What does this fold into?
Amino acid sequence: MITRLENPADVAAIHDVTISAFKGHPHSDQTEHLIVDRLRQAGTLSISLIAEVDGDVVGHIAFSPVALSDGSKDWFGLGPVSVLPAFQGQGIGGALIRRGLDMLRHQAAAGCVVMGDPDFYQKFGFRNDPQFALKDCAPQYFLVQPLSSNPASGIVTFHPAFYAGVDQ
Ligand SMILES: CC(C)(COP(=O)(O)OP(=O)(O)OC[C@H]1O[C@@H](n2cnc3c(N)ncnc32)[C@H](O)[C@@H]1OP(=O)(O)O)[C@@H](O)C(=O)NCCC(=O)NCCS
It folds into this structure.
């Protein structure tokens, strides 16, 4: 298994992997593939990594900029992250998350946030932090990982690509 940045030839496979990963997922509206497409179209897919096995795309992770109400810059949101069902539980999702976080550190990102299963994301250094909040998200499912010593706090807003077509 290798991880690498996406290239234009991967776009259709990323679409398919994302649909397959979230199919039937209880906390999904099965539109995550559209979020990835919209982020790419908006030029805000800051990091898009794929996992490849024998030349096939089996996993994908996206990172995109988020806004903080205190004006802090260089914060990013993790997601969606997807691994084909047949390849889950083999360390691929974890490898994508770690590599993505490493890339954020190398580009001097200030921090990263994620919405999802706390038991899963705590494995990768994310923590609940009452100094941060995400609208319409229960606090236990919103996790934060500072990547610099710059103080930050406030309401976090993901890129509009996450909300297109959703009544707010
Ligand atoms: C979530 C997902 C990306 C994880 O990818 P994966 O390749 O299966 O994960 P890994 O094998 O790298 O697992 C990494 C660690 O997380 C654990 N883990 C995996 N899924 C977990 C879950 N749902 N809850 C808690 N822990 C989980 C693994 O046991 C492993 O722990 P370990 O390192 O202590 O052994 C993948 O299961 C997936 O695509 N799921 C459907 C889409 C989804 O839910 N995306 C995330 C939305 S928030």
Summary: The chain has a mean pLDDT of 96. Strands lie at 2-5, 47-53, 56-65, 67-68, 75-83, 111-115, 132-134, 142-146, 154-157. The helical segments are 11-22, 32-42, 92-106, 118-121.
